[in-house]
Specification:
This protein folds into 3 domains: 221 residues, no CATH class; 145 residues, 2-Layer Sandwich (Beta-Lactamase); 166 residues, Heat Shock Protein 90 (2-Layer Sandwich). 58% of the residues lie in helices and 14% in strands.
Length: 642
Amino acid sequence: MKLGGDDSSSGRFALELAAGREGVPRLWRRRNAAWQIRLRWTVAPLMIAGALWGRWLGFEFPLVPIVAIAAATFLYNAVFALLLRRFRVRHSDDLGFDRLLANSGVTLDYAAVFLLIYFTGGVVSPLGIFLIFHVIIVAIQFTAGVAYAVAGVAAGGLWLFLAGQTAGWLDCPPIGFRGSSLDYLAQPTLVAVTLLFFTATLFITAGIVSRIVDRLRSRVGDLADATSRLARANDRLHGLYRMLSAIGAEKHMQPLLAAVTDELAEVVEVPAVAVKLLTEDGLALRYVAVNGLPREFVDSVQIQLEESAVNRRVIEGGSLAESSAGGYGRSPLGPHLEDRGFRWAVLAPLKVGERVIGTLGFYDRAARELDEDDRSFLQLAAELVAIAIDHAQAYEQIQGIMRERADFMLEVAHNLRAPLGASLGLVSLLLDGMLGELNSEQRDHLGRVQGRLSSLNETIGELLAIARTRDRSREIEDVVVDLAELARRTQALFERQAEAKNLRFLVSVDEGLPPVESGVGILDQIMENLVSNSIKYTPEGGSVDVRLERDGGEAVRISVSDTGIGIPESEQGRLFKDFFRASNARATTAYGTGLGLVFVQQAVARQGGTLELDSTEGEGTAVTVTLPTRGTSRTASQAESR
């Protein structure tokens, strides 16, 4: 992960520091080489400007050699700049290239300074002071030993100038001032004493600057280490975030573990990661997820704990354990790993509470050293994986229980329907007088029996419908539903029932509504439940309105509103619980399943829709169902099921 977001100098500096302490020498040398070249661009103009200014003040010295030296400085600096620009990428990891540039620069700079000193009076030249700046630059770029050596060269060169000039075999052009010669060599003892103090200054400067720079380099090294640790922690936190996102988005075991092992392999930077869980008898570990290992390991390879000391140590002790090649005991998996080039492994316990359920393994082809941060991270990753596994197992167990419940409901309902249908048929025969005339009391009792049996039959039908929508393992075939045709069927089905109660019953539908994909018969059942409830609980003279309309570009809205008894506000929170009926609904009629709205909610959710209910006791109820149109309903339903 990049610490710098662009190619700016600050971004590159952060990236170089992220390499850690081992990257400091490269960083230090390369940045100083570039800085030295940038500084040298100012030398030639300053040299010429200083010479011209000295001439203007009245000093007399050879001007042409100084201009030539300035031009030579500019020229070799241009060569260094060109080499750095062209080859710095190719030699980005080659410290020798940077060392060559730095050494060459210092050598040529010294040659230029000594030439300037020669043409401006030799040992008495005022330009000798610039040798101090060279010592400072070298002390910054190199070690203290190199700085002292350069200080010795500078001092030695000046002493050679003194010896050569006093002996007469070195003829340096003297400096004059407005026609008079500045002959300091007339007093060689004074010059020697001055040079002695200057020599001491050079060595003192080399020592002080080297010590300061050493401390600075140490601090930069500490900063590099801290930045490296921060970068690694940042990468790992980001990896944990991605892993937690995968855990939150996926509920099933295998897809979840595949995502987790993939993320951990990338974050820890190992070629293989594996999750192993204890078998039911607790005597072996079996692979349940791998990344970077053969897929056939999963569920086909088991490690017997009594044959693997490292795995047994993790399971029994609940702590991190490392192992190198040959450390797998007699486990048959050891040779398989070694044959694939793996030589190192670290295993972390998967703990749920105090119980160890398996191990999280990281494998590499070379031995690695773990520090305390590494161990803490691996332990944390293992704890998160253990929690994810525990939740996935619980979810799959709950799904299994729900499937068993749905299967039980279906089986019971189907087994009840046949005798119930026969009973209703017999009661109808009796009421129709097919088996003899009935007196009024007998007819009244049989009517009540028929009502109870009809209510029970309705309840069984609702239970079958709910079980059908709740069971995600059973695919319900989708059909295309024409909403205009659905409105006509609803009108025809409930028109007479509404007239019998003297209700105003209105079904309206917008023109050109897009079709909706729905399970076979489900949308009709939704409409029947909503409309039948409205008619049942609306007193005579009231109204029931059904409206089908467009809701944006990719949804339709079905609303059923009435002027019925409404629902008490205190009871509205329990409306979608199985078999719940509001108190005023029970007072209105004894017959009712309490499952109609439950079915509607389940069916709408399965199709990726939404349901809203607004009710006021004594004023009426409005239920609004929003469904995606054809082409979007299946995508929404699949997303909801996940």
